[in-house]
Design brief:
Layout: H1 2-10, H2 24-50, H3 58-71, H4 75-87
Helix pairs in contact: 2-4, 3-4
Length: 97
């Protein structure tokens, strides 16, 4: 229930402006960015299931370590994705890839 409420609060409109861009490459690029953002949100929700907000410090590492190993991600990526899921701020993932 909390995840659903957080998702609704953070929901960003992915609709394009009224006038579509003249450059179709821009449309394609926007769709790619939307897909990346959607994937980051989904991964963040999964990570919050494993390492909820009430956990901190080494407890987070204990929960995220096996998950990150299983999906082939670095723990730093997992932590950054968790920060992104908590805040909804894309800057939390800056520099992770």
């Amino acid at each position: 229930m909390v995840h659903e409420a957080a998702r609704e609060v953070r929901a960003v409109s992915t609709e394009f402006p009224d006038a579509p861009p003249a450059d179709t490459r821009l449309v394609v690029l926007r769709r790619v960015v939307d897909d990346v953002v959607a994937g980051a949100r989904a991964m963040g929700e999964l990570i919050l299931e494993v390492a909820p907000t009430c956990l901190s410090g080494s407890t987070v590492f204990d929960g995220l370590g096996p998950l990150c190993d299983a999906i082939g991600e670095d723990i730093d990526i997992g932590l950054a994705t968790r920060r992104y899921a908590l805040t909804g701020d894309g800057r939390a993932r800056h520099g992770t890839r």
